[in-house]
Amino acid sequence: MATKKIINKGDDAVDEMLDGILDAHADTVMRLDSNKRSIVSRNGPRKGKVGLVIGGGSGHEPSFLGFVGKGLADAAAIGNVFASPPPDPIIECTKAVDGGAGVLYMYGNYAGDVMNFDMAAEMVAMDDIEVRTVLSTDDIASAPLNEKHKRRGVAGNFFIFKAAGAACDKMLSLDECERIARKANDRTYTVGVALSPCSLPQTRKWNFEMGDDEMEIGMGIHGEPGMSREPLQTADDITDRIIDKIFGEMAPAKGDRVAVLVNSLGSTPLMELYIMNRRVHQRLRERGVEVHKTWVGTYCSSLEMAGASITLMHLDDELTGMIDHPCDCAMFSVK
Amino acid sequence: MTSLTSERFIAMFRTLAERIEQEKGYLCELDGHIGDADHGIAMAQGFAAVRAALDAADASAITPTEVFNTAAKSFLNAVGASSGPLYATAFMRTGTLLKGKAEAAAEDGPAVIEAMAKGIQERGKAEIGEKTMIDAWLPAAHAVAAAREAGKAPKDMLQAAADAAQAGADGTKDMVASKGRSSRLGERSLGHMDPGAVSAAMIVRIIAASLSD
């Protein structure tokens, strides 16, 4: 039986969603005439500023276009559901935000995104726009540390893009923006847990199977299998597993500072996210780690998947400044 | 043996669009085991866009190269994903192969398979055994070369390519993915055919049938 969704035609889902977003957020974002899948900030791009173009498949809202606005990303290229955008919308975004100081491409590390963004970068190079690319690889459950280049980018994108967007907005050079973006990625750690699958609007079939009493730690935001499938545990036990994994790699010292993101993968409600967040804070207190800021909500979803992810960004003074820098996006702002 | 006109290539793309649309659900199901269950959608959307672009073209006025370049551009912009750049590059390389010809000869049919395989390998940088579409495309190209070496007719070269692509796709069942999205599964990808290799074998078979006789 087909999964239940409030849609018209499956093939129209992405474009109809974009129509609705533009109706709601016309004060912050606009769609380019040259490509209907190019969403650009009304106030961000300006002469002498490094442009920040982000993007990826649809189905992760508010990622990625929700983070387009002054102080964060200048543009997002929109793909089909769970599929990289083709080069065209990326190229149009790049041209629209180029202020003569170069353009930074930032997106999660997935084979399709890499090929399409690389093709776009090759094509805009012919127009003398210098592009640098920083891939996010914050999902520490997706590959071991010695194969960090294979890791996926997931909800930690939120922190990584935020830091890079602030650097761009402070009018730093392309070299500096790239350095800060890489540091942000190196210091951001995410692990997710999935409780039930999601379904694509075009297929309306569950994209993987999971038993009624099962969960999977480390599952990716497209349903990529994670580290282990096991019986559902309590919020504290799940959170402990995730935090242990993150601490194992981040190794925070007493007195260190972090930013926290507890993110819903789609259908897990705020109630459960806050229960997890309570445990995250307990664990950080026990370890003597200071929480600089906490965000709880849906920042990087996987359609209607049930589950959550926890991201910690290991802050230093520079990254703290970038996280606190004001931004005004369609679906997120820092005053 | 008739020559390969633009009309023949356009008819080939129409068949591809029809057949991949029919197999869409099956390809998504395969992808559901080891990926995100969207491969059939991406491929069907891509070939539907190619068909629409070619329907809008004047078949009697465009060259085979223009047919493939139109296919490349429309496929790429409809799909994105990873199959977009891979097949777009395959079609562009074929466009280059046929450059300057008002119509292609029967011998060019098997060379289309080789050009496409070369384009896919250049863009994706995958090797044999990594459980990707290249496990169908490279054996197909090698089979063409071997059959040509053996003095076979173009029709038989194409048949050899189709068989080799199918065998290659079947073989991905016993591979552990090391490239692309399913590589994150490691050992858990064993026992499932790679959906990209399965669609590749379908495509090679349809191209072979379309460009034979």
TrEMBL record, chain A:
GO biological process: glycerol catabolic process
The entry's keywords: ATP-binding, Kinase, Nucleotide-binding, Transferase
UniProt-listed Pfam families: Dak1
Residue stretches in coiled coil: none
InterPro entries assigned: DhaK_dom, Dihydroxyacetone_Kinase
All copies of domain DhaK, residue ranges: 9-332
GO CC annotations on file: cytosol
GO molecular function: ATP binding; glycerone kinase activity
Protein name: Dihydroxyacetone kinase subunit DhaK
UniProtKB/TrEMBL annotation, chain B:
Domain (DhaL): residue spans on this chain: 7-209
Region annotation (Disordered) ranges: 169-191
SUPFAM superfamilies in UniProt: DhaL-like
GO molecular function, one term: glycerone kinase activity
Keywords assigned: Kinase, Transferase
Any one GO BP annotation for this protein: glycerol catabolic process
Protein name from the UniProt record: Dihydroxyacetone kinase subunit L
Domain of life: Bacteria
Gene3D superfamilies: 1.25.40.340
Assigned GO CC terms: cytosol
